Amino acid sequence: MPDTDAAARFYDALLGWRAGFDASPEAQGYGQFHLDGKVVAGISPTMSPDSPPHWTTYVATDDIDATTEKVREAGGTVEVPPMQVLNAGKLAGYTDLEGVFFMAWQALDHKGAELVNEPGAWAWNELNTRDPAAAQTFYPKVFGWETSGDAYYTEWKSGGNTIGGMMPIPPDLPPDVPPHWLVYFAVDDVDASLKLAKDLGAEQTGPFVDSPAGRLVTVRDPQGSAFALISGLQERR
């Protein structure tokens, strides 16, 4: 985020988060968001002026070096080589065959989000793509994921558990809308949360959708990071 303090105020007011930043030089301004005393997300300053504000999807791995090699073998690009993050873990960043950025995390002391699928917390990650066939080739090669669904919506599965989704970008959207991973946050009332988000300076970027999983809407925060709000989310196991 260009302004981490402003982002902290926005998500505090919208989702009830509390931000805590590591003041050590090694942390480079990184912080964590907490809800009810549990870690729910991370935040860091924008590292490059060419990088727009965005939410980043992380995928857990037991061996980040092996994952990095699988990305190369599957035709992806290693954007951030594996690196140690203090005692928290190891990370790496990649782009898939379509140029969609995502990251992998090998946990050490920091295992990831401590609260999910609850109001105010992360609930879902979804790949929005113009080439679902390429994604269905790439991600299973890298992470061993399986798929289920139809031409409109795909669910990513690992070990038989649903872990995320994928849908084609509608053809009526402008061609400059890039493919991307979209993060969802659960709320009690998506209509009320959207109104609050707008009052806080956010922008609604799509219509309300009543899906089998719940009622949802896409939003862009005041600094430009896209995310979705969803209420009535059915628990997925």
Largest sheet: 9 strands, mixed
> How far is it from the N-terminal to the C-terminal residue, by CA?
32 Å
Name of the top-level CATH class of one domain = Alpha Beta
The CATH superfamily of one domain is known as 2,3-Dihydroxybiphenyl 1,2-Dioxygenase, domain 1
The SSE order reads HEEEEHEEEEHEEEEHEEEE
The helicity comes to 10-25%
* Average pLDDT level: 91
**Protein structure class:** alpha+beta
Strand residue percentage:
35-45%
Characterise this structure.
The protein has 237 residues and is of the alpha+beta class. The chain has a domain at 122-231: Roll (2,3-Dihydroxybiphenyl 1,2-Dioxygenase, domain 1). It is built from 4 helices and 16 strands. The chain has helices at residues 4-15, 64-73, 132-143, 190-199, and strands at 18-21, 31-35, 38-43, 58-60, 77-85, 89-95, 101-107, 122-129, 146-149, 154-158, 161-168, 180-186, 203-204, 209-211, 214-220, 226-231. Strands 8, 9, 10, 11, 12, 13, 14, 15 and 16 form a 9-stranded mixed sheet that branches. Strands 4-7-6-5 form a 4-stranded mixed sheet, covered by helices on one side. Strands 1-2-3 form a 3-stranded antiparallel sheet, with helices on one face. The mean pLDDT is 91.
Features:
single chain; 237 residues; alpha+beta; 2,3-Dihydroxybiphenyl 1,2-Dioxygenase, domain 1; nine-stranded mixed beta sheet; 4 helices; 19% helix; 38% strand
